Amino acid sequence: MTANVSPSAIAPANDDIGADTRRDLYRLQLEIRLFEKRAYDLFLQNLVKGTSHLSLGQEAIAAGMARAMKKGDLSFCTYRGHAHTLARGVPMEKVLGELMQRDNGLMRGKGGSMHLTSAEHGVMGSYAIIGAHLPIACGAAWRAQYLGQDDVSVCFFGDGTTNIGAFHEALNFAKVWSLPVVFVCENNLYMEYTPIGDVTAVEHPAADRASAYGLERIIVDGNDADAVYRIAQAAFARARAGGGPSLIECKTYRHSGHSRADPGAYRPKGELEEWLKRDPVKLYRQRLAEFGIPEADIAAIETEVLAQVDQATEACKAAPAPPEELLCTDVYADGGWAWRN
What we know:
Elements: E1 2-5, H1 7-10, H2 19-44, H3 59-68, E2 74-78, H4 82-87, H5 92-99, E3 123-127, H6 133-147, E4 153-158, H7 165-176, E5 181-187, E6 190-191, E7 194-195, E8 217-221, H8 225-240, E9 246-251, H9 271-276, H10 280-290, H11 295-318
Parallel strand pairs: 1-8, 2-3, 2-4, 4-5, 5-9, 8-9
Antiparallel strand pairs: 6-7
Helix pairs in contact: 2-3, 2-10, 2-11, 3-8, 5-11, 6-7
C-alpha cells in the first residue's frame, strides 16, 4: 500500500488544524530557526566549542511531530537533535548552556551538542552512533505495550541510517511485536557528504523499503509543518490503538553543511537556492497570513521568540563553567565513578 502524502491529499482547508495550533507550529519553527542561527553566531565568537549539527531548513519536521505528541510520549533523536529537544519544551537556556559548556546546561555541560537528554520532557537522548537508538526506541515501546500504557516512542533518524543494519532489525522487531513506535526518516538527501541516491538501491531510502516489513509506504513533505502534523496525528493514533508501528519518510533539505566544519561544497550549483524557495519558516509565515492570522499576531510571536533567544544567550554568557568535581559524577548507575566488580 502506498501513501504519498501532501497537504491537499489530507485536508483541503484549515478546519482540521485551526488558528491556535498554527500559531504554535509557527512559534516552534521560529524558535528552532533563531536558536540554531544564534548557536552558529556564538560558535564564530568561540563561545560554542567543538562541532555541532544544525537543523536549519528542517524545522517543520520537529515542530509538526512534537505538536502532535502527548505528554508522556518519548522522543529519540540523532546528533542533529537540538530541534527535537527544543520542540518538546526544553528551555532554550538549558540547551544553549549545554552547547556553551556552562553549568546551567541541560547536562551541566557534560553532554554537549550530541547528547541532549531530558526525561522530564520525554527527550530520551540524542545518539551520536548512527542507528543505535532505533532498537532502543523499540525497547521503550515494548515497555509501554507490556505495561498497558498508551505512550508512543518516536524515533528520528537521517537517510543514511536506512543503510545500517539496526534500521532493518528495528523495523522487523517492531512489526513482529506490533509495537507503538513511529520511525521518522529525515531525508535531507545527504548522508554526511555523500548523496543518499548514490549509495542506495531505491529512490526513497525509507519508504521504498517499508513493504519488506509489511508497513505502509508513507512519504511526506518535510518542509510543510501542516503535512507533518497531520501524518503524525494519524500514525500516533494508530500506535495508541494497537495498530503497530509506522515508517514515515520526510523529504527535506539542510541549509548548511553536515556540521560546522562542512561548507557543503559537494552540492550541485543552484541546488541550495532552489530549496531555499521552500524555506519551511518563510512558507509557514505566509500560510498564517493566508488563513487570516493577523500580521500583528505574527509579529508578536517573532518579537517574543527573539527576546527568548536573547535572554537565553545572556544567561548562558553569565553562567559559570561546571566545577571540576562534576567530572567524577554520574559515570556509573549509582552516580559515582569508582569501578565495582
